[in-house]
Amino acid sequence: MTRICVFCGSSNGDREVYPQAAAAFGSLLAEHDIGLVYGGASVGLMGAVADAVLRANGDVTGVIPQSLVDKEIAHPSLTNMHIVETMHERKALMANLSDGFVALPGGIGTLEELFEMWTWAQLGLHDKPCVLLNIAGYYDQLIGFLDKMTDSGYLKEASRSQLQVACTPEEAVIACRGNAV
């Protein structure tokens, strides 16, 4: 089974479109028999995408540090749950379990996770797709800054092109699968 790792916020954000798109993306993953790997929480966009996959009878694997389990935010109903000690272990296991990476709206943790996977691709440590799901223009300014980095000579075009941008959940699935939905 193909598995996609999703990085996203542990809150819903300030627009209803964010959890709606997270749920739509989760439903599409299950519809296309793509398993979800994510941070294991039951809250925010993380919970929205996981719940949508589960409602559609899809496969969901969570990876969560014990410290977050202790705060009672672990999702209680996943297909598989891996409890690890550190955030470093979490990211490494999520990467190993996944065939691609998609970032939905989120904060600095979401960016850090996506950027690490993108950096690993740049270094040739994997050739898995890295996709930024730019829901309702959430990442427009970041995309503009990445383009400025490229124009200024700090980011090679080949590396820049390794981070794909999708504007809809359907486009993100296509970017991950490399074919039409």
The number of distinct structural domains comes to: 1
Largest sheet: 7 strands, parallel
Tell me the radius of gyration.
15 Å
Number of helices: 8
- Shape assignment: globular
Distance between the termini: 16 Å
- Helical residues, percent: 40-55%
Spell out the helices and strands N to C: EHEHEHEHEHEHHEH
What's the CATH class label?
Answer: Alpha Beta
Question: Roughly what fraction of the amino acids lie in strands?
Answer: 15-25%
Count all strands and give the number. Answer: 7
What is the CATH architecture annotation? 3-Layer(aba) Sandwich
CATH topology: Rossmann fold
Which class do the helix and strand fractions yield? alpha/beta
Q: Calculate the mean pLDDT score and round it.
A: 95
Strand order of the largest sheet: 4-3-2-1-5-6-7
Oligomer: single chain
In terms of per-residue confidence, which ranges show pLDDT below 50 for 5 or more consecutive residues? none
Break the fold down into its secondary structure elements and pairings:
Layout: E1 2-7, H1 17-31, E2 34-38, H2 44-55, E3 60-65, H3 66-70, E4 80-84, H4 87-97, E5 100-103, H5 108-122, E6 130-133, H6 140-151, H7 157-160, E7 163-166, H8 169-177
Parallel strand pairs: 1-2, 1-5, 2-3, 3-4, 5-6, 6-7
Question: Could you walk me through the main structural features you see in this protein, from its secondary elements to its overall organization?
Answer:
- This protein is of the alpha/beta class.
- The protein has a single domain (2-177), classed as 3-Layer(aba) Sandwich (Rossmann fold).
- 46% of the residues lie in helices and 19% in strands.
- Helix 5 (108-122) links the parallel strand 5 (100-103) and strand 6.
- The protein starts with a strand and ends with a helix.
- The relative contact order is 0.17.
